[in-house]
Amino acid sequence: MKSASPTLFDEAYYQRFYFDKKTSVVDPKHMERLGAFVCSYLKYLRVPVERVVDVGCGIGLWRDLVAQHFPAARYQGVEVSAYLCERFGWQQGSVVDYAASEPFDFVICQGVLPYLSPPDLKAALDNLGRLCRGALYLEAVVREDYERDIIDEDLTDPLLFRHRAEVYRRGLSRHFREVGGGLWLSRAADVPLFELECAGG
């Protein structure tokens, strides 16, 4: 199977999953709590946040959250959807091969990677390592979430790949240390961590 085509992410897709309140996957209160947690944890860890990239930024849910918690930071939205790039002015690109002149302090990748085939997922995880010199926030549903019956399949896109959690952890561990709550700290970051603040090596 191939990764989802960029043409999938058209106006109809975003109308269904984001703009129509009856079928939207967006919970504003959840996003507010998530943004407060992630950004507060970064502040606690003393990760300097000046340059932020949101890879697969969608309608830009993180833009205002970043501005609220890191008002001096520069936010860059990157999106594969031509429709959203035209509508919101994002930079067009894919998590698989998006490149920047220098790495970012904070990389966000929410709900993107399950649309990728296994080879593209492997490439994307390596690319996230190249893009990040600080912290990565990653959200992706995995096969175990379906097996534990905690996914609302009426709202979730049926086109998602159901990769195992180990696939993500193995790919990310080359570049990051897992610090919980979906946050990963770059192995290149000069941020001291207590041993029990990390989930394994």
Please tell me about this protein's structure.
The protein is α/β, with parallel strands linked by helices and 201 residues long. The model has no long low-confidence stretch (mean pLDDT 95). It is globular and about 45 Å long. It has 7 helices and 7 strands, in the order ααβαβαββαβααββ. Helix 2 (28-45) crosses helix 3 and helix 5 runs parallel beside helix 7 (165-173). The protein has helices spanning 11-19, 28-45, 61-69, 82-88, 118-131, 143-147, 165-173, and strands at 51-55, 74-79, 91-92, 104-110, 132-139, 176-180, 183-186. Helix 5 links the parallel strand 4 (104-110) and strand 5 (132-139).
Give the C-alpha Rg: 16 Å
Strand arrangement within the widest β-sheet reads: 3-2-1-4-5-7-6
How much strand content do the residues show? 15-25%
Helical content stands at: 25-40%
Shape: globular
Mean model confidence by pLDDT: 95
| Distance, first to last CA | 33 Å
Low-confidence stretches: none
**Main β-sheet description:** 7 strands, mixed
H/E order of the elements? HHEHEHEEHEHHEE
Instruction: Look at the helices and sheets and give the structural class.
Output: alpha/beta
* β-strand number: 7
Number of helical elements: 7
Outline:
With 201 residues, this protein is α/β, with parallel strands linked by helices. The protein is 35% helix and 18% strand.
Main attributes of the structure:
alpha/beta
Blueprint of the fold:
Elements: H1 11-19, H2 28-45, E1 51-55, H3 61-69, E2 74-79, H4 82-88, E3 91-92, E4 104-110, H5 118-131, E5 132-139, H6 143-147, H7 165-173, E6 176-180, E7 183-186
Parallel strand pairs: 1-2, 1-4, 2-3, 4-5
Antiparallel strand pairs: 5-7, 6-7
